[in-house]
Amino acid sequence: MDIDVVSSPIHETAADAILIFLYQNSPFNEALNTLDAALGGLLREVTEAGDLTGKSSDLLVLYPRGVIPAQRIIAVGLGEAEEITPDTIRRAAAQGIKKARDMKARTVTALLPDHPDVNTAAEALTEGTLLALYSYHGQKSKEKAQDLPEKLTLFVTSEQDIMAAQQGVKAGEAVAAGVKITRDLVNLPPNICTPAHMAQVAEEVAQEAGLKIEVLKKKQIEALGMGALLGVAQGSDDPPRFIILEHNADKAEALDTIVLVGKGVTFDTGGYSIKTTDGMVGMKADMAGGGAVIGAMRVIAALDVPLHVVGLIPAVDNMISGHAFRPQDVLKASNGITIEIISTDAEGRLILADALVFAARYKPAAVVDIATLTGACMVALGTAAGGLFSTDDTLRDALMQAAERTHEKIWPLPMFAEYDKLIESNTADIKNTGGRYGGASIAAVFLKHFVDYPAWAHIDMAGMAGIEGVSGSENPYVPAKGATGYGARLLADFVRHWK
Ligand code: BES
Ligand code: MN
Ligand code: ZN
User: How many CB atoms lie within 10 A of CB 273?
Assistant: First the structure.
């Protein structure tokens, strides 16, 4: 979709639909007053009748019947002006554009809602619009994609606002393009989205966005001594990949480095600790953390964030065969730590272990990993938030703020010393599971053994990826079924705001 910014009276345009946004209990602003005057007081009339309230998620379609050239007006409520956040605008834009799409509008104009920061408002409106129009058709051989609005023209009140709005639109487009990459990867079936396929998509993203990329194959992974990752991978005929994306690689010396690590299990059968039939459906999304990192890196490159940012995606397939690893095998990670396998289904922490060790070579100011790691985290927080674990309060706060801005929620969970006791092994340095209770925290303290830098955070996003059988999102710019794209916006926003 093509998005422009102009400053002229919106009632003069011949769009298929005009989108307007209204605050509850607030007088119309100048732009709305001008539109209302052109409509002979229609807006005021429906407001006074109580049919147009401006309440959040209220939506009303009005027909000007030739009084102005536009075919219809879609009015969406924003709620109270004092409570406005970027997410309110994202949601309202999503609702409005979906209505326009369903009414087969091709050209849409929108009045930018009043907001103290034009740039932020334009970015939120663009994001909400583009994220809402995402659809995935998979391998359906007959169904045709729904026609979408082709053009959105954003109206701002004054000439001076055009530049700021254009910048916001550009940022919103970059963010939506990153999220689309994440959603597409997560939605793909596991026979298509193999580790090699993830690497190929990462190559395409790197080409397009100007990122440096290196993809390590099995031989190179062996040379690095990544025995934990290789143990998981060895049961599959699809060999592993270790994907390294880098933004500002040439300025690594001068800039602070942030490393993002994403779990890329392209399918998780559980291995010999096999999942149930129902437990296994949905496990194509077990690479959602890796997908989020690839999407975030696309955004970070497009917005040319002035930091050295590295994305690491260990990509493996957790399968069963005569070559597969077993419970009671002992694996040796690349930092020399030996791990007794209790459950082959606790595979995510194994591949992350080697990736977290690898991250140290960049001398990072901060490392953040994101993973669909434990059902326990889902039990704790449901589908409302990911779990957040951090060794550093500044990093934790920065991530919490990014979550607030993006509405990709996270919530702090502990890494008490008590959990460490639970992964003591009789035969190796540690074991990969620690009993029934506190599973999300146990996984986090396991990962901590592979962290050798001051600021590390771990995000357990098991409930957030949009896994089948786990309840879907009610958010109008997040698909109700299938991949949410969770994590890409959160990570990109965090990096954009890093001091
Ligand atoms: N990928 C799963 C976690 C998961 C489960 C994500 C459901 C999303 C939805 C992970 O690899 C796993 O199997 N974890 C085990 C760990 C256990 C064996 C300690 C779990 O949570 O049951
Ligand atoms: Mn598993
Ligand atoms: Zn898994």
Answer: 18
Question: What mean pLDDT value characterizes the chain?
Answer: 97
DSSP string for residues in 169-187 = HHHHHHHHHHHHHHHHHHH
- Within 191-276, residue ranges assigned H as helices are 195-209, 218-223, 227-233
Overall average pLDDT of the 358-366 stretch:
98
What DSSP element (H or E) covers 155?
strand 151-155
Mutational pocket test of ligand 1: of 374, 446, 484, the residue with most ligand atoms within 8 Å of the beta carbon:
374
Amino acid identity, residue 91? Answer: R
Task: For residue 431, report the distance from its CA to the centre of ligand 3, in Å.
Answer: 17
Ligand 1 touching residue 287 (CB < 6 A)? no
The residue assigned the tokens 């299938």 is 482
Q: Residues, the chain, total?
A: 499
**Could you read off the pLDDT of 428-450 as tens digits, one per residue?**
999 999 999 999 999 999 999 99
Clarify whether 91 is annotated catalytic: no
Ligand 3 is a single-atom ion; what residues have CB below 5 A from it? 265, 268, 286, 348
Whether residue 275 lies in the annotated active site: yes
Residue 479 is encoded by which pair of tokens? 């698909």
- Residues 260 and 368 sit within 8 Å (Cβ to Cβ): yes
- Return the closest-CA partner of residue 470 out of 254, 267, 281: 281
| C-beta of 433 in contact with ligand 1 (< 6 A) | yes
- Tell me the pLDDT tens digit for each residue of 381-407: 999 999 999 999 999 999 999 999 999
Taking alpha carbons only, the member of 192, 432, 196 closest to residue 313 is 196
Q: What is the pLDDT of residue 146?
A: 85
User: How many DSSP H helices and E strands does the chain contain?
Assistant: 16, 18
466: tokens are 């949009």
The catalytic residue among 275, 332, 396, 448 is: 275
Show contacts of 85-88: CB within 8 Å, 24+ apart: 85/407, 86/120, 86/121, 86/123, 86/124, 86/405, 86/407, 87/124, 87/406, 87/407, 88/56
Residue 408, ligand 1, Cβ within 6 A: no
439 lines ligand 1 (CB under 6 A): yes
Q: In which band, very low, low, confident or very high, does the pLDDT at 290 lie, cut at 50, 70 and 90?
A: very high
Cα–Cα distance between 253 and 419 in angstroms, integer? 38
Model confidence, pTM:
0.98
Distance CA 347, CA 269 (A): 10
